[in-house]
From TrEMBL:
Residues that hold Mg(2+) 3 according to the record: D32, D77, D213
NCBIfam families found in the cross-reference section: thiL
GO biological process, one term: thiamine biosynthetic process
SUPFAM superfamilies for this protein: PurM C-terminal domain-like (SSF56042), PurM N-terminal domain-like (SSF55326)
Sorted UniProt keywords: ATP-binding, Kinase, Magnesium, Metal-binding, Nucleotide-binding, Thiamine biosynthesis, Transferase
Chain sites annotated for binding Mg(2+) 1: D49, D124
Gene: thiL
GO function terms (MF aspect): ATP binding; magnesium ion binding; thiamine-phosphate kinase activity
Protein species of origin: Roseateles aquatilis
Annotated Mg(2+) 5 binding sites: D216
Pathway(s) where this gene product acts: Cofactor biosynthesis; thiamine diphosphate biosynthesis; thiamine diphosphate from thiamine phosphate: step 1/1
Protein name per its UniProtKB record: Thiamine-monophosphate kinase
Domain annotation PurM-like C-terminal: ranges: 181-305
Length: 324
């Protein structure tokens, strides 16, 4: 199978020419460039994420889940900005034209794309070590993108969903701990099939003062918001939302997975205290649970406190459990 057959068969979905204009894509796959038409009065938001085997996914992941995850991590960036997904580009390096891989990968990719109304508008395909590079484009009304830079002292700090399960699954794969089969399946789903919080991000437009998605771990990603906003924060460890599986683990493992887990793809955001009711309504409207987990301070730095409000010293130190 040649490069053009491969694109036609698995990515152009029967139409090498025009895609409907409905999502701002006037012309999609098939020409030298895609032609896009931004909605008047809107800004385009663009983000790219590359996935490399061994670093961003394990060779044990199914092609269908990999297709899902490759797009999901990109949609998560649009979600963090409160953007509505419009178009994406897929650049692929493949060791060989493996039809079973391509069928599964494109199925997982398009299932998620269709769920979010985003159109594959182009890309590039080449032979090489497996590498998946996606660029997504979305829109917000002019000036309404959620940014990392808007957090203000006394804002509430919020988190969506639950944190830490993906890291727990990774540690099981690494062999540093073990879980009963059904619990492993549960956390493995969070690692391999993350659900980008696009609806929540959109519902937070005009409400949240700042937002970021958690891809590298809560403490680190929140640190980006604090740095860009020139503020600090106090985080209440006991209030961080976690699954029943993680909640049953030893305290130090919970702390590590919650604070520096990574691959969560939840949103962390800030909003003024007077917006509390509206934030809860945004969560309900988007069918996404949201939790108040701390406060923004004028004093720079991140402080983590326990259930009694006592400061936890060095909350990010490494843990014996994971030293193999
Ligand atoms: P060019 O040689 O001009 O770069 P290509 O032959 O690489 O064009 O691609 C032909 C068409 O197929 C272009 O519209 C391009 O965007 C699209 N395309 C190539 N690879 C992919 C892919 N993996 N997914 C989606 N579209 C692709
Ligand atoms: Mg090309």
């Amino acid at each position: 199978m040649g490069e053009f057959d491969l694109i036609a068969r698995y990515f152009a979905r029967g139409a090498m020419a025009a895609n409907p204009d409905a999502f701002g894509v006037v012309l999609g796959i098939g020409d030298d460039c895609a032609v896009l038409a931004p909605t008047p009065g809107h800004h385009w938001l663009v983000s790219a994420d590359m996935l490399v085997e061994g670093r961003h996914f394990l060779s044990t992941v199914s092609p269908r889940r990999l297709g899902h995850k490759a797009l999901a991590v990109n949609l998560s960036d649009l979600a963090a900005c409160g953007a509505s997904p419009r178009a994406f580009f897929l650049s692929l390096a493949l060791p060989r034209a493996d039809e079973a891989f391509l069928a599964g990968f494109s199925q997982g990719l398009f299932e998620l794309a269709d769920a979010h109304g985003i159109v594959l508008a182009g890309g590039d395909t080449t032979a090489g070590p497996l590498n998946i590079n996606i660029t997504v484009m979305g829109e917000t009304p002019r000036g309404q993108a959620l940014l990392r830079s808007g957090a203000r002292a006394d804002d509430d700090l919020w988190v969506s969903g639950t944190l830490g399960d993906a890291r727990l699954a990774l540690e099981v794969f690494r062999g540093t701990l073990s879980l009963p089969g059904h619990q492993f399946d549960e956390v493995r789903l969070r690692m391999e099939l993350p659900e980008p919080r696009v609806a929540l991000g959109r519902a937070l437009r005009g409400l949240a003062t700042s937002a970021i998605d958690v891809s590298d771990g809560l403490a680190g990603d929140l640190g980006h918001v604090l740095a860009r906003s020139g503020v600090g924060a106090t985080l209440r460890l006991a209030d961080l939302p976690r699954s029943a599986v993680l909640g049953a683990m030893p305290q130090d493992i919970q702390q590590l997975c919650l604070l520096s887990g990574g691959d969560d793809y939840e949103l962390v955001f800030t909003a003024p205290a007077e917006a509390r009711e509206r934030v809860l309504a945004a969560g309900r409207e988007s069918a996404t649970p949201v939790y108040r987990v701390g406060r923004i301070d004028a004093q720079p730095g991140l402080r983590v406190v326990d259930g009694a409000g006592r400061l936890i010293e060095q909350p990010l130190q490494s843990f014996d459990h994971f030293k193999s």
